Amino acid sequence: MVEEFAFDNTEERRKSRQSSGDAGWIEVIVGSMFSGKSEELIRRLRRAQIARQKVQVFKPTIDNRYSIEQIASHSGMTHVSKPVMTAAEMMAQMEVDTQVVGIDEGQFFDMAIVEAVNELARSGKRVIIAGLDQDYLGRPFEPMPQLLSIAEFITKTHAICVKCGNTANYSQRTSASTERVEVGASDKYEARCRRCFVPHSDVPTVHD
Ligand code: ADP
Ligand code: ZN
Predict the structure, then answer these.
(1) What pLDDT is stored for residue 186 in this prediction?
(2) Active-site annotation, residues
């Protein structure tokens, strides 16, 4: 069964009541490509802004599919964000009075992101980080497994298998590349279920 998390505004309310001395927490959103991770991240960030919390958003520069000054979902939702090369660079840009930190494409960060988000949460910030939990071969995609281990809250999102319509948990690469990082969208990947996923490159699904 697909597990859905219905977030009410409890988190925003808790955050706005907190004084700066209190601890924050980490929320991780993981799933395959097209599963709605960016949409869910943007939804939570918009709600935090409606609650008048100070929000800062980051994404690693490796992903240049869309304008680098924003995070974007495949359905066209966008949110401004700062491009950074490393976790250290993100920390250097962090402002003390920021209450909510949003991070997209977490799988493209270096391992230092794990300690960085721990430190942010310890200093009282709510950290929301989205990313792919598996690479194109279905292997855990570091640093997401480590982030899942330290998070207070985890949301798994699912796409729809383009071959059969079942719940999709995999990002099927449809180009021949064997690089772990091969940036692209529906030109190079499609969502597939466990049964339809072929760990090495497969031809794109043709719909008539
Ligand atoms: P992610 O960040 O997980 O890659 P996005 O939030 O960018 O996902 O995009 C999710 C949106 O992608 C969906 O709301 C839907 O409009 C679109 N979409 C395209 N292909 C699929 C698919 N196979 N399954 C589900 N949604 C899809
Ligand atoms: Zn399928």
Answers:
(1) 81
(2) 105
